[in-house]
Amino acid sequence: MKKARSFCVDANMYCVSDIDGAQYIEIMTLAKGKRVTVPLVDKGKISGNLRIVLNREKQAIEVYETAEVCQRWTAKPGTAEALDFGYTEVFTDTDGKQYGEGLGKIFSDFTDKLNHTIPARPGTGCTHSKRDTAKKGKYIRQTTYGSAISATRRRTR
Fold this sequence. Notes:
- By secondary structure, the protein is of the alpha+beta class.
- The two termini are 56 Å apart.
- The longest helix has 18 residues, at 103-120.
- A hairpin with a 6-residue loop joins strand 3 (22-28) and strand 4.
- The chain has 3 domains: 6-65, no CATH class; 84-120, no CATH class; 125-156, no CATH class.
- Helices cover 27% and strands 25% of the residues.
- The strands form 3 sheets. A 3-stranded antiparallel beta sheet has the order 1-5-6, with no helix packed on it. The protein has a 3-stranded antiparallel beta sheet with strand order 2-3-4, with no helix packed on it.
- The chain has helices spanning 103-120, 125-128, 135-143, 146-156, and strands at residues 6-9, 14-19, 22-28, 35-39, 50-55, 60-65, 84-85, 91-92, 98-99.
């Protein structure tokens, strides 16, 4: 079973208070009207979403303020943006910039390798043709290739 060591709280789930010069954070619990009070080592401005982490090594609770995610790109109103996913590159955007060039070569090289190695592997005949009476050959016939080969061999005898 995986134990949770951290959780997130938003601004409505906690409150920060100063009591006798020390800063405390009061976190909401499952019981109605009850809060857990955690003393903080440092004093500072706390706001927004927080991540509360249990540090077992230090036997402490750590409070991290999450950073706001800024949007770097906004679509222009009335314009359409497109991505073209392909074989030679992972995708191309509307401006024609290509990302992941060389992907097609990697796929082609791997496919060529498989097309060369798979037919070179031994077929069903070589695993039991020379070991008809051997215990290992019988085991291979019965388990590896299933009943199709066993039925074929019974018909040919």
